[in-house]
User: Which sequence fits this backbone?
């Protein structure tokens, strides 16, 4: 009897964002290099402030990594009708009991969100939550944003990758949901 077909386990993933977006370094390597290069170029009276800023940025990167961040990209662009902000991040999460439904129920139980699916080439049909939510920015401030969260099971693992996209540009909700779906649909496993 022939052995069952087993696909190679993924070694990583790719996600394509618009050309004018910036991919952020989550390893901290670029920030460390920038910190070293600024050390001698910053005037002596400003070194403490520059050092504090670098420490804050490093702490933000550490926080993202410890919460499972694997990829981040975004844009801030000025157009005739105002400022456009958007970002996408990919997180690796291990749902309780390996069941992503527990994550989904928490996201869909809040008003302004709906559960649907997205068909991604190389992955299949996956669950997706879309709508609006309040996102914390700092310790005591929140911003309402258009969001999507798409749950991609990792083959042969208990983890899921969550592709999260967000923008505070609420008047453009329909266009943003289309943009976020287009970005998420570019997801591909690397083998």
Assistant:
């Amino acid at each position: 009897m022939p052995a069952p077909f087993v696909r190679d386990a993924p070694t990583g993933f790719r996600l394509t964002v618009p050309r004018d977006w910036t991919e952020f370094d989550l390893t901290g390597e670029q920030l460390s290099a920038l910190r070293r290069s600024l050390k001698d170029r910053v005037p002596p009276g400003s070194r403490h402030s520059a050092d504090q800023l670098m420490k804050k940025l490093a702490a933000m990167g550490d926080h993202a990594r410890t919460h499972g961040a694997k990829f981040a990209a975004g844009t801030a662009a000025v157009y005739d009708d105002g400022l456009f902000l958007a970002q996408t991040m990919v997180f690796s999460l291990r749902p309780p009991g390996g069941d992503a439904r527990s994550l989904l129920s928490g996201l869909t139980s809040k008003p302004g969100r709906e559960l649907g699916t997205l068909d991604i080439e190389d992955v299949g049909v996956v669950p997706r939550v879309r709508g609006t939510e309040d996102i914390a920015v700092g310790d005591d401030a929140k911003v309402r944003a258009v969001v999507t969260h798409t749950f991609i099971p990792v083959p042969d693992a208990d983890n899921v990758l969550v592709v999260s996209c967000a923008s505070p540009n609420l008047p453009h909700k329909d266009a943003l949901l289309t943009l976020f779906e287009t970005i998420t649909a570019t997801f591909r496993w690397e083998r």
Notes: The first strand starts at residue 12 and ends at 14. Residues 70-191 form a domain with the Protein Transport Mog1p; Chain A fold (CATH 3.40.1000). Confidence is low (pLDDT under 50) at residues 1-6.
